[in-house]
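Still learning folds. Look over my entry:

…
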Amino acid sequence: MCYVIITSASLVWFLCSLLADMLFAVALVTPKWLVGPTPVGQLSSKSSSVGIYTRCKVMLERGYHCGRFDLDGLFTDSSVYPGEWKAAMFFASLGFALLSVTVILTLLTCCRQAACGKSIHNLTACAQVVAGISVMLALFLHPLGWRAERVQRLCGQEAEPFYPADCSIGISFYCGVIGVLLTFIAAGISLKAESSNMRSRVRRRVEAGSKLVCIP
């Protein structure tokens, strides 16, 4: 029999996973991991910035220009695209992909609790932990590349790993940090969501023939 179970715990789990996934997407594609100082005499509040594979630059004649610098992907020359950032890109993409899959799985658990004899909740929680660890590695690897010439041009010659010199940490980096925290929280909520789906009230409603079971 086909039925759908929605509990407050499963709803919070889905929303937490979805929000974390959106934050990972923002961190991945926006060029705001490092934000450079505002040029002297610049009327605009905009500053040059750099992300994992994109950058924005204040140009005197062309205004504010954003674009990618990984023209050949992971095969881009390391003088243009630091090796540490290539590794960060790999782990950030892996974490984002895994978490995107788990968002779909959180919806699947509303109508199916197990697959191949394994709890979907537990499998999803494990995948979310791996996703969180992957993005956490990306957050660690990016500062390791701050000695690169690209960063020193933006932040000053004093820039080195974990010291951005004249630059400041941008919103994209913080989105990644918050996303990691939410991912680990979501993995913990999955255990509560599983137990709430197995409550006696839910079983009675299902045995009574209810196709849609909503329990707070």
About this structure: The chain is about 55% helix and 15% strand. Residues 8 and 216 are 5 Å apart (CA to CA).
